[in-house]
């Protein structure tokens, strides 16, 4: 098992190295170059020369890449020009990341807790009303755009009914913030009203963000369980008189989990894409909202950092999926 993890970690280093080259090349391939993209219509010969000198763009490409890589390894991705002008992009990431992680945890938890059991039940009761209505629900989850669902939930439950907060992360003004995770901060400081208020702010955006992961995980769980149910070893286990719980846990779900784990891993990596729209609708103040501003305003120091972090997160999630594969199915370790 240890050799398997070490091999995957070495592959991770290679992937991140290639990613850094692609990110470096992308910045140099911007229309008109980095300087023109950042200065826009404000560009003057003096400002272009100053920025070119500051970025070391007169150096050979391999020197520029080495400087870029050295700064990246030190956590220096430059200073924001639009999201929070004059502030280091790493500080913006540290401030905003807890909000996105908190929202992603809620969305993924909702998706997994609903999709996996429902997918199993739909497969066991194939062709029933539950199966048909679940399939329709999953199709709606895939077909309805995240931003539209977010606006719909916000209008119905926040604006019209007033059951949920309209936007933001917290309404309690004097709450103590320690970690940046507002719900956790409220629990740690025993400010129960702040914790509950923060949790309520997570419900609507969490449901909106969970719609697509729920649909994908449900459909893959259902298909995987259906495939396993027809296997000979399941029929043999039942013929031996094993209890339904043992057959379900040891033979059906254990073998059906591999593609489900893959789906969960992929959806975890893709949550940031949905968070951009969801956080914008609910003015959530997370990484997704910062990414949207950085794209719109050409804030490339923030943009390159967020893209790099998103890619690293995706790679790490896939590493975790590989490890879980090896735990569930030891045959994977030899591949």
Short description:
The protein has 335 residues and is mostly helical. It is built from 13 helices and no strands. The chain folds into two domains: 2-73, no CATH class; 89-334, MetI-like (MetI-like fold).
Features:
single chain, 335 residues, mainly alpha, 2 domains, globular
Task: Report on the architecture of this protein.
Helix content is 76%, strand content 0%. The termini are close together. It has two domains: 72 residues, no CATH class; 246 residues, MetI-like fold. It is mainly α and 335 residues long. α7 packs across α11.
Topology of helices and strands:
Elements: H1 2-28, H2 33-39, H3 45-55, H4 61-73, H5 89-124, H6 129-143, H7 146-160, H8 182-188, H9 192-229, H10 232-239, H11 244-281, H12 287-297, H13 300-328
Helix pairs in contact: 1-13, 5-6, 5-9, 5-11, 5-13, 6-9, 7-9, 7-11, 8-9, 9-11, 10-11, 11-12, 11-13, 12-13
Strand content: under 5%
Q: What's the total number of strands?
A: 0
CATH superfamily of the largest domain: MetI-like
Main sheet properties? none
End-to-end separation: 12 Å
What is the CATH T-level topology of the largest domain?
MetI-like fold
Total helical elements: 13
CATH uppermost class of the largest domain: Mainly Alpha
Low-confidence segments: none
Q: What structural category do the secondary elements indicate?
A: mainly alpha
CATH architecture of the largest domain: Orthogonal Bundle
**What is the CA-based Rg, rounded?**
24 Å
Coarse shape: globular
Q: What is the percent of helical residues?
A: over 70%
Give the topology string: H per helix, E per strand. Answer: HHHHHHHHHHHHH
């Amino acid at each position: 098992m240890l050799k398997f993890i070490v091999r995957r970690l070495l592959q991770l280093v290679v992937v991140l190295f290639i990613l850094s080259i692609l990110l470096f090349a992308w910045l140099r391939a911007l229309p008109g170059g980095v300087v023109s993209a950042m200065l826009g219509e404000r560009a003057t010969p003096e400002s272009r020369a100053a920025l070119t000198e500051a970025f070391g763009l007169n150096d050979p490409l391999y020197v520029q890449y080495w400087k870029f890589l050295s700064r990246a390894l030190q956590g220096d991705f430059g200073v924001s020009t639009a999201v929070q002008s004059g502030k280091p992009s790493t500080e913006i990431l540290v401030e905003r990341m807890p909000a996105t992680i908190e929202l992603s945890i809620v969305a993924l938890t909702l998706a997994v807790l609903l999709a996996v059991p429902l997918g199993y039940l739909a497969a066991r009761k194939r062709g029933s009303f539950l199966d048909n209505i679940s399939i329709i629900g999953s199709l709606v989850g895939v077909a309805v755009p995240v931003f539209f669902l977010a606006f719909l939930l916000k209008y119905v439950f926040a604006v019209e009914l007033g059951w949920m907060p309209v936007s933001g992360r917290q309404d309690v003004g004097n709450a103590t913030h320690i970690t940046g995770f507002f719900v956790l901060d409220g629990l740690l400081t025993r400010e129960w009203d702040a914790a509950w208020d923060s949790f309520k702010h997570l419900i609507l955006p969490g449901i909106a963000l969970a719609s697509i992961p729920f649909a994908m995980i449900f459909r893959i769980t259902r298909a995987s369980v259906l495939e396993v149910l027809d296997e000979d070893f399941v029929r043999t286990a039942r013929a031996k008189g094993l209890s339904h719980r043992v057959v379900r846990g040891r033979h059906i779900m254990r073998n059906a989990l591999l593609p489900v784990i893959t789906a969960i891993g992929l959806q975890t990596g893709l949550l940031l894409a949905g968070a951009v729209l969801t956080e914008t609708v609910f003015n959530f103040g997370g990484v997704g909202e910062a990414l949207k501003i950085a794209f719109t305003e050409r804030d490339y120091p923030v943009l390159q950092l967020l893209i790099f972090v998103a890619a690293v997160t995706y790679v790490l999630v896939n590493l975790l999926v590989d490890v879980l594969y090896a735990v569930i199915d030891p045959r994977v370790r030899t591949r």
